[in-house]
Amino acid sequence: MHPEWSKNANIYEVNIRQYTPEGTFKAFETHLSRLQKMGVKILWLMPVHPIGVKNRKGSMGSYYAVKDYKAVNPEFGTMDDFKSLVREAHNLGFKVIIDWVANHSAWDNPWITEHPEWYSKDSTGNMIAPFDWTDVADLNYDEPGLRDAMIDALKFWVKEADIDGYRCDVAGMVPTDFWNRARIELDSIKPVFMLAEAEQVDLHETAFDMTYAWELHHIYNSIAKGEKNVNSLEQYFSKMDTTYPNEAYRMNFITNHDENSWNGTIEERLGNGAETFAMLTYTLPGMPLLYSGQETGLDKRLRFFEKDTIEWDFNSPWMDFYTRMTSLKTQNQALWNGTFGGAFERLATSDEENILVFKRVKAGNEILVLANLSPDEHAFTINGEHPEGEFKNVLTGKEMPFEPEQKFNLGPWEYHILKK
After folding, report:
1. What is the model's pLDDT at position 386?
2. What distance in Å separates the CA atoms of residue 300 and residue 308, rounded to the nearest whole number?
3. How many helices (H) and strands (E) does the chain have?
4. pLDDT at position 47
5. Which domains are assigned to the chain?
6. Quick check: 32 and 89 in contact, CB under 8 A?
7. Which whole-number Å values give the CA distances from 349 to 95, 254, 273, 357, in the listed order?
């Protein structure tokens, strides 16, 4: 089902507009070697298509208002520039997926006049926008012609630009049987990787390799605010075990373009717990996402419809942190994705509400994580089955023997990652 190269991969979301002062494919290309050194594997480019002008929001509009499914946004460069970026990324060992907006189009997409029957309409026959997304018109998948045209456009980028798959916007609002057909037709060209912005279980059956772990993300935010505790994580993973196929990948994140622009920065939402929750995106089951600028501590809400260049700080300690996390994830099979990695196994402690201790084991590789998910210091013991043998702290290199009845003490948001 999954491409072999995805087994220990991570994913990096690229916001071309805000990445550089130029906001172009060529300007972003100069960052590839830095991202390669960090260990990034999959590059997810936010939509690269021309943006609609009619009913546009702001001066530059939303990437997600697609005017032409087979062209590139001229602000970013030319089709040749895009192909060059994909080629160079492949040469450096990356895989490239692009964002795909199948649920709606811009109001000045040619389909509006050429095929009005492809759009949803109200009782008076007027085309409608989904929700309050007034810059786009809702597409109607009851129309076979729309399905054919959309799949033709999806195949275009794999054939013409050799991309490796798609991140599909609001995928759950498009019929699953459409995605199933699309996946089969795309895989006939080359094996692709498909990410759904959705949590629907049936999307994993044929069409998608990975879905968003939205619920887990919201649990992180709630724990950081003191509204939930560690038990909610255990409940979440129990539910995942009984709901999702074992081989399903879930995408772990503490930010993305929506969260950053609309719901607040990492600092605003997670406060002093930011590093600990970031660590969990790499050590809990799932594939970790990094958003543009996150690796240097991006601490501003990027404007969505205007130019708002990321302020980079390449001396930020976050660079080293994320590089080490990526290396940890890649090199330890226990932490790999889906059934390539080990299952989540929580160890009981004397403080179930504040302390998370879990292990993951695969093919003789064992990783043990101890984390205090609270703003206060806590002492605790591990109950029941106790880790045995010599462990090494993977971040400090120090040996850590485990004694029976051993007492631990963790400061606010303190964590340790240990390898047997």
Report:
1. 78
2. 10
3. 13, 18
4. 98
5. 4-340 (3.20.20.80), 345-419 (2.60.40.1180)
6. yes
7. 41, 26, 20, 8
The pLDDT value recorded for residue 404 is 78
CA distances (Å), origin 150, targets 118, 185, 257, 327: 11, 12, 24, 38
Structure tokens at 67: 């005017």
**How many CB atoms sit inside 10 A of residue 113's CB?**
8
- Give yes or no for a contact between 186 and 155, defined as CB atoms under 8 angstroms apart: yes
CB within 8 A of 40, min separation 6: which ones? 10, 12, 94, 290, 326
> What is the predicted pLDDT for the residue at 385?
80
Q: Which residues pair with 250 in a beta bridge?
A: 211
pLDDT at position 257 is 96
Specify the amino acid at residue 374. S
**Nearest alpha carbon to residue 230 among 239, 242, 220, 238:** 220
Residues 14 and 16: their CA atoms lie apart, in Å, by 6
- Cα end-to-end distance, the chain, whole Å: 31
How is 352-420 classified by DSSP, letter by letter? Answer: TTTEEEEEEEETTEEEEEEEE-SSS-EEEEB-SS---SEEEETTT--EEE--TT-EEEE-TT-EEEEE-
Q: Specify the pLDDT at position 403.
A: 82
Instruction: Fill in the amino acid letter for 200.
Output: Q
Q: How many residues does the chain have?
A: 420
Which of the residues in the chain have pLDDT under 70?
none
Q: State the virtual CA torsion across 101, 103, 104, 110 in degrees, nearest 10.
A: 80
Q: Hey, what are 245's tokens?
A: 């196929």
Contact of 40 with 32, CB cutoff 8 Å: no
Please classify residue 234 by burial: count the beta carbons closer than 10 Å to its beta carbon, then call 0-12 exposed, 13-18 middle and 19+ buried. Answer: middle
**What pLDDT shows up at residue 316?**
98
Query: Degrees (nearest 5) of the Cα angle 120, 155, 16?
Result: 85
| Confidence at residue 405, expressed as pLDDT on a 0 to 100 scale | 81
pLDDT score of 389: 80
pLDDT at 390: 86
User: Is the separation of the CB atoms in 16 and 24 below 8 Å?
Assistant: yes
Return the number of other C-beta atoms located less than 10 Å from residue 82's C-beta: 25
Q: Angle at the Cα of 194 (from 155 to 154), degrees rounded to 5?
A: 15
